[in-house]
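Course assignment 3, question 2. Fill in each field.
Student: A.L.
Task: Predict the tertiary structure for the chain below.
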Amino acid sequence: MKNIYIFLAFFVLLVFYSCYKDDGNYDYLQEEQVSIIEIDTVGNADRFAFVMIYNPGDTIRMAPRVKYAHPENLKYAWITYPYPYEAVQVGNAMVYPKADTIARTLEVEWEVTHQPGWYNSGLLVTDTVRGLSAQMLFSYFRVNKPGAREGVYILSEYDRQSDIDFYTSQLCLIYGDDSMIPNYYSETTRGEMLPGKPLFISYGQDYYYVFTEQGGYRLNTAGLELMEDWDQMFYNTPSYKPQALNYINNCEFLVNNGKLHVLYTNKTNDRKFSAPIGGDYSASPFLSDRTRASYGAISGAINSDQVIFDEKSLGFRPYFSMATEVGEFMNTIPDAYINAKRLPSNPWAIKGGEGGKTYAILEDEGSPYLYILNFYNVIDDGDLSGNGVNSIIDLSGCTNIRNLKFFDANINGTAFFYATDKGVYSFTPSSGQINSTTLYECAADEEVTCISVFAGHAGGGFPTAGAVLWIGVWNESGKTGKLVEFEVDAYSGLARQQWGAIFAPTHSNPHITTGFGKIKSITTKF
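Answer field:
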């Protein structure tokens, strides 16, 4: 891919002429003359190296090709400079920061030493005899704070205790190259694992929440240091029974022991959760991740801060901003395909699906069904059915659907994924199919312990968000865990390589990484 992510801006080069940290003299020519020296990255596996996220101490490697009639005359300089590139006040003058030279060879291998922040980069190639030059400038890369790796955080069990493993994949383009760090939490903090078997991990406003059988913890993203434990998260600490946590609409929502607790992150409240939100309800572990209309585009839209499922009434209920009690939707009209306020039974699983809709798997008159509802970008007119006449889909052809233990979907496509102890399956309501597709079957001594779709929260993860499925698999005889990574079609649910040939050419489908504990929960940080 020649000159990908490249700027050829003459005025920027004029700035480098005066600011570039180099003793050489460069006579920059007009753009049409520069093309005499050709810099090429077509087919290079490292061509995205300078558009990734790195941690201090990581190494950036890149080896472009240069085509030129007189290679013996060429001089090379790799430079970096802050992004955005803006003048700063120095005395009475506004001065652009000097670019840093990180290498003077065609192939760069540079250990990241910059301070945390964003940086542009470029390769300058000059013929020192003829005065010709060419440049390849890349859009920005990022340097994290120490201990603040961005990637996949995996809560795993190690001998009845909990630890966080770290993982990145080339398929998750925003995270960079493949990486796996077992016991990342205990090694990063130079401490012991978290006590108790793992329950789940979730990402809050700017920190992680980890819940084990023995306690809940809020961990700083920089180094995973303990910020608060369960008692410190509340003004009045409730009994410990965490079920779900989700961060949306400037609020962290926690379901604990059937009750909803809220923490508005844009308000001053010492990061403490509220007392249980009032009302006669028993909340399930479901928390919606899409509720408010996009940019206020729909006048009169529901615009609740959260939607829960009440196991007492068998119905969905909204929570509106700063309310002291859980609310109610309008009474369902007779012609509605689904009564959102009273489902036929308690769902086996609920998850956000296509375009912000809600998928519920349940039994209705003795058969399994998918109920599709919509609480996002809609007006509550008494019918919250999500897909018209196709809001209820018969799942009788789905293999082992009654033994479902794990369930996931995402807003980027129509397919959903479910798992039993021994297998993982997919189904899509958009194709007219009646049977599920088997994606993975365990060996005799294996069991599935978790599934998770790389969903791309808050718009991140393009273009592979929704196209990556992770399966946690535990081998009981060997006492070892592995992560099975499928590239999938977000609409058909089939294993299909779309982006892998570009971003992860060395990956098979599935791509398997070993060395984990018993994987119980997965979250991603953007």
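Instructor remarks: The first strand starts at residue 6 and ends at 7. The radius of gyration is 26 Å.
Grade: pending
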